[in-house]
Write a structure and sequence with these properties.
Length: 67
């Protein structure tokens, strides 16, 4: 599943981790593939499978961000 990098950065910032968000901004590609980039996502404390489950369940990132 492809996710826009900005959505990942927003998720990290919503968790209060601006330092990780800045680092992720430098290292993640513009479109993050949860399979291809699983290692990078885990590096930033994001479980790719949890992300896919939540996004695939129709909740979208809004559900992850508490919207």
């Amino acid at each position: 599943m492809n996710i826009d990098k900005d959505q990942i950065l927003q998720l990290l910032r919503s968790q209060g981790d601006d330092a990780k968000a800045e680092q992720a901004d430098q290292e993640l590609p513009g479109q993050v593939d949860t399979e291809r980039d699983a290692g990078l996502l885990q590096k930033f404390g994001i479980d790719p499978m949890d992300l896919v489950k939540k996004l695939g369940g129709g909740g979208g990132l809004g559900g992850l961000l508490g919207r």
